[in-house]
Amino acid sequence: MDKKFSGNKPLLFQLSAMAPHAPVQRVISVEESIFQKNQDQAKKNREFFDRRGMKVFNVMSSPGSGKTALLAKILPRLMGRHPLCAVIGDQETSLDADRLQKAGVPSLQINTHSACHLDADRVARALAKIDARGVCGGAGGTDLGGGGADGAASGGGGADGAASGGRARETTDLGSAAHADLQGIEWLFIENVGNLVCPAVFDLGESFKIALLSVTEGEEKPLKYPVLFQDADLIVISKSDLLPYLDFDRQLLLKNVRVQNKKAPLVFCSVKSGEGLDELMGQLEDLNSANISTTKNHAFLERETLTMEKP
Ligand SMILES: Nc1nc2c(ncn2[C@@H]2O[C@H](COP(=O)(O)OP(=O)(O)OP(=O)(O)O)[C@@H](O)[C@H]2O)c(=O)[nH]1
Ligand SMILES: [Mg+2]
Using CA positions, which residue lies closest to atom 29 of ligand 1? Predict the structure, then answer.
């Protein structure tokens, strides 16, 4: 298959490749500006997190591979050591934030509606809402003026201003003195929308990317969806309790992961049996101590720009 259709390029780029006589220059400009806008906000987010000393973990996987189940299991245990909260992206409902709240984790749901991934602006507006609604347990009340009701605070419902009514402000200035309620928060977990492709290419300003793959999805996924695995700082293979019932080849999976990523630690775990959970929490602590801020998405953007065919 033509490399242009390999599945890792944003939709607009693929469309331009499918229609060689279309105004390619124009399509490329739109895509570049979408990415640039996101990168600009991601940079602001990262600066905000860095100033606060917050570590941000962006958890990505396909739908149903066990992101929420895993977070609901380990975050309550980590909260004693690191004040934390969570932001969860789904197209609709606040079900996942409700699950985390029930587990005792301060959480806020973002509904992306038609979008298949979170972006830096949505995350910025969610942080403003955390302040406004006191989701993290503080006094709250400091709204950065994000305008529309972004997503649904857990249990509260609400419309996404940007997507449904355009009421939300386009960007939120994370450089202001607000976010009183995020004071003291050390770790922020972002559960991205279930999708192996798009979340991998949208920088949220996170410190670390966590790629999750469940054993029921197949050993070949790192080869078919490389970007997520290439850029991951930590790779989690979930639902290991199901291995006795599957023809799953651990060695093959490992080999396929290492084709894409030679360095990231890989942990098999299960929320049912408890396997790997202590190791996983240890790996999070190690990332925390490593004290690096990821800028790998910039590299991805540059790669894509370089390979674009000009008319
Ligand atoms: N056997 C087994 N089932 C699991 C495990 N982790 C999650 N599940 C089940 O997998 C299903 C999906 O889990 P979720 O946590 O909702 O998955 P998710 O990745 O958050 O899904 P989305 O938010 O829709 O992308 C649920 O029925 C869980 O009970 C596990 O370790 N072992
Ligand atoms: Mg979930």
Answer: 69
**Local structure of 190: helix, strand or coil:** strand
Task: Look at ligand 1, atom 7, and give the residue with the nearest C-alpha.
Answer: 66
pLDDT for res 21: 61
Minimal-distance CA residue to ligand 1 atom 3: 239
Length of the chain: 311
Tokens representing 48 are 């905000």
For residues 200 and 203, what is the distance between their CA atoms, to the nearest angstrom? 8
Considering the segment(s) 3-307 as one domain, its CATH architecture is: 3-Layer(aba) Sandwich (3.40)
Long-range contacts of 289-292 (CB under 8 A, 24+ apart): 292/207
Domain boundaries, the chain: 3-307
* Cα–Cα dist 68/107, whole Å: 11
pTM of structure = 0.79
8 Å CB contact between 120 and 204:
yes
Nearest to 57 by CA among 287, 279, 298: 287
> What average pLDDT does the chain have?
79
pLDDT tier at 29, thresholds 50, 70, 90: low
**Closest residue CA from atom 14 of ligand 1:** 66
* Residue 172 to residues 63, 85, 128, 253, 267, Cα–Cα distance (Å): 29, 19, 8, 41, 36
Pocket mutation for ligand 1, best pick of 105, 221, 238, 248 (most atoms within 8 Å of C-beta): 238
Separation of CA 68 and ligand 2 centre (Å): 4
- Which residues approach ligand 1 with their CB closer than 6 A? 61, 63-69, 90, 96, 194, 238-239, 241-242, 270-272
Q: pLDDT tens digits, residue range 229-254?
A: 999 999 999 999 999 999 999 999 99
Residue 288 has pLDDT above 70, yes or no: yes
